[in-house]
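User: My collaborator and I are trying to settle a disagreement about how two of our proteins should look. Neither of us wants to argue from intuition anymore, so we agreed to look at predicted structures for both before our next call. Could you fold the first one, then the second, and keep them clearly separated?

Assistant: That sounds like a sensible way to settle it. I'll keep them separate. The first protein:
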Amino acid sequence: MTGIAAETSVEQVTRFRGSDLNDLCEATDLAIRDGGGFGWVDPPPRDVLERYWRGVLIVPERRLFIGRLDGVVAGSAQLVRPAKNNEAQAFAATLTTSFVVPWARGHGLARMLTVAVEQEARALGYSVLNLDVRETQTAAIALYERLGFRRWGTNPCYAVVHGRIISGHYFFKDLTRSELPSETQP
C-alpha cells in the first residue's frame, strides 16, 4: 500500500491571512481539550481566543510561529524575548505556548516548531532558550530532551488542573555551546 506523505511546514506569522486565525483558534481549542492548553484548562469563548492571538501579534517581545499540516494550521509556538528593562536576563529568551493538535501529531511538527524558535533565538543573538512544561506532557519532555534541552528543576506545585496539583519541569538550552539538531535525527 502506498501512502501519500503529508506536507508539513512552519512559518513565522506577522499577520493573519485567509482562514489562519480561525484555524489557529480551532487548533487551540482542540489542544486545550487534549490537555495541552498552555495555561488554559478549559477552552475560553471564541472571542477570547481571537483577542489572545491578535494580541500576540502586536506584542513586540513575542514572535509567533505556526505549524501547518497539508496547509491547515495545526500547531504553534512562541518566542518571547525579555522586556527591555530586564538587563540581567537580556541574554535569554523563552519558548512558550507550544502545541500540536492531536490529529496532526506524528508528522514532526512539534520538532519543527521547536527548531524554528531555536533558530530565531540564535539569529537574534540569544545565548539561552528557556521553557517549562507540565509533567503530564511526556512526549514534549522527551522531544525537548532529544533536542538538547536540559532539565534544571521541577516545581511540585506547578499548576492546578481540574482540582489536582501537578508538577512541572523547567528546561534550558545553551545556544552558545550546542548546534542545531540535525533534521535527520529521530
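The second protein, kept apart from the first:
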Amino acid sequence: MPALAEDVEDLKAQVRAMGAQLKQLTGSVEEAPATGYGADDEAPEGEWAFPPFILLLDSPAYEDELRALSEWIEGVLVPGYLAEPSADARWCHVWSEHPVAVARLHALWLAWQELTDPATCGYSGPSTWHRDHYDPCMRELRSSGGPFTGCTKGEHQIVHRQPSLVPSAWSHE
C-alpha cells in the first residue's frame, strides 16, 4: 500500500505542476479554474463545488438542472443512442421518476459536456465518453435488475421501495 500512496502523491504533484505550467503558458494566473475551485482549494463553507450531485439540489435548482438534463436526453440520447426498448434493454419514458436513473443520467450528461469538447479534452474525448461513461451507465440502467425493471413499453412502474430517510451525508445546509 505505501507504493500506492506514493503514486497518488506523485500524480497530485504532476497535476499541480501541469496546472502551473498551463497558467504560465496561457497567462491566466488570475483566472478561476473551470470547476470553480482549484485542485488544492475547497469550496467555501455552505457552497457547492460544481457540478453538484443532482439529487442533493433543492427546488428550483433541481427543476432547472432536470429540465436541462431532459433536453439533452430527449434531443441527443434517446434519438441517437437508445434503440427500441426490449426485455434485455429496458428504457422508461418516465425516466425522471426513477431517482437512480436521474442520478446516473445526470452524471452521464456531465461527462458528455466535458468529453465532447475538443478544446478541453482533445479528439479522443467522445471515445472515452462511450467507453468509460455511456456503456457502463446503460448496462446498469437497462439491465434486467436496473431501475426500469418494472417498466415495459408504454407502461411505467417504480417497483423499488424508496428510502424513508435521506442519509445525513446527502443533506446540504
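Some points you might bring to the call about the second protein. Residues 48-161 form one domain. Helices lie at 2-26, 61-81, 99-115, 118-121, 125-142.
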